[in-house]
Amino acid sequence: MRALLVIPAYNEADNIERVVDEIIRDYPAYDYVIVNDGSSDATPDICRKNGYRFLDLPINLGLAGAFQAGVKYAEKHSYDCVIQFDADGQHLPEYLDAMVAGLAHADIVLGSRMSKEDQPTGMRGVGSKLLTGMIKLTTGQRLSDPTSGFRAYNARAIHELAFGPNLGPEPDTISYLMRKKGLRVAEVPVRMAERTAGESYLNWKSSSAYMARMSLSVLLIQFFR
C-alpha cells in the first residue's frame, strides 16, 4: 500500500525539521508532503533548504484548506492511503504501521487516546466527550476520541475528501462520511507527545467557537449537505 503523510504546517519553523527528519530517517517506507499554509515564519525556507517535498500555499487557508491541498496531491499521484500528521511533533510515527493496518477493515482509522492519562483535558476534554455523544446520536457509532487529528484514510475516503463539499479533517466530516457515505471508521489506541516548541492556535476563545461550530454541524448542518 502506497502511503502518504500529509503534514499541514503553519508557522512550525521550530518543529518541522525534527518531525520530518525522523520520518525520513526512521520510516522510509512512508512518503510525505508538507503543506506550508502561508506561514509568516521560516517554515518554507527550512523546507527549501532541506530539500523537503512541500506544497507552498501563498496565503493561509486554515487546516481544512491545507489538508485538502495535500489530499488532492495524494489523489493526483494515486496514493492508496493518506495519514494526517501534525507538524508540531505531537503525533508519534511509531503508530503509523498500526494505523495503516487498520485500513484493512475500515475506510478511516482514528489514532485515539483511549487510556485515561492520555485523554484530552480541560475544555478540549469536555468538548471531545460532547462530540462523542453527538456522533453516537447521529450515526449510531461511538468514537472514543473524535477530536484526534491523527487519522488514516483509504483511497475511497481520499476521493471523498479531495472532491467533497468543504470537507475539512474534523469530527463533523467523520460523522458525515459515516452517516451519508457509509464509510467505516475504526480506532487504534495511540499515545501523543506534548508540543515542545511553538504555540498552538487553540485557546479558550477559539476552542469555544470550534465546539459551537462542530456541534451545530454534527447535529444539524450535515443533514443538509
Description:
By secondary structure, the protein is an alpha/beta fold. 41% of the residues lie in helices and 16% in strands. It is built from 8 helices and 7 strands. It has a 7-stranded mixed sheet, with helices on both faces. β2, α2 and β3 form a beta-alpha-beta unit. α3 crosses α6, α5 packs parallel to α8 and α7 packs parallel to α8. The mean pLDDT is 89.
The helical percent reads 40-55%
Radius of gyration: 16 Å
- List the uncertain runs: none
Mean pLDDT across all residues, rounded? 89
* Most strands sheet: 7 strands, mixed
Principal-axes shape call: globular
Number of strands: 7
Which structural class do the helices and strands define? Answer: alpha/beta
Brief write-up:
This protein is of the alpha/beta class and about 220 residues long. The chain contains 8 helices and 7 strands. Strands 3-2-1-4-6-5-7 form a 7-stranded mixed beta sheet, with helices on both faces.
